[in-house]
């Protein structure tokens, strides 16, 4: 077990209210390619108690046991089962579909065509499958979603304001390691992450990047504990106006290539001129490109896994419908 050292001292379990026993919450999943939907699930689960334990398992089914039973049947019967509300508009299946379909339909300002929706929704599914637990739906950003993820705290006197910028696409452990290093540069850091517009990212990344649109990337970055604020649609060049507006003390960039601005200028020339620019080595070589390459390489294996899982879940749903119908008939016979 890996214990999260943040929060209570040394990662120790906090006491419950008024000295009562702490409520321990268990939450599990595959958490493959962690996105803001997973973050929202964990946020909801944490709010149900005092101490959250997260189980990460392999690619075996999470909804069914080997003999086809509901994985959570025992805890449901014991009255100890709760469900988190699903975050609409995001799923690992959808994100993988975007990588493989190589379209820009998911970018902000692009309307999702019926052809894309039909193809993406059937991606990796068994023929005729209509599983309510998977599928593609368009993400709709709301102010409430942002409030749920945002800290709402402004920089305080004595805090060091650190600015970082980028796409932060498919927010992954490489990004987290970088932000952790940035966060550790000051005793009292206030980290601001500037996220570029989809069209800007596509200009310097090409292909169908970013895989996640600006609204989705915003929630993913806000969910990171090392980030205090996010600039939604930040300018590519770190300007004097931006630095002065946020009273930035330090500007950081990773070891990835710095692509020149459209006019050929260095996007970090102003913070360099002020002597507040530094490059950070996160010690992690994982990039969004590597994740996409891995998915493309293992496409057939991924599709086969999804189809097998889909078929099992559909069979389980049909069996459950039959059981409910049988109970209803028996109940009617009693009268």
UniProtKB/TrEMBL annotation:
UniProt cross-references to Pfam families, sorted A to Z: CTP_transf_like
EC number: 2.7.7.14
GO biological process, one term: phosphatidylethanolamine biosynthetic process
Keyword Lipid biosynthesis carried by entry: yes
Coiled-coil ranges per UniProt: none
Sorted UniProt keywords: Lipid biosynthesis, Lipid metabolism, Nucleotidyltransferase, Phospholipid biosynthesis, Phospholipid metabolism, Transferase
GO MF term set: ethanolamine-phosphate cytidylyltransferase activity
Pathway(s) where this gene product acts: Phospholipid metabolism; phosphatidylethanolamine biosynthesis; phosphatidylethanolamine from ethanolamine: step 2/3; Lipid metabolism
Protein name per its UniProtKB record: ethanolamine-phosphate cytidylyltransferase
Organism: Enhydra lutris kenyoni
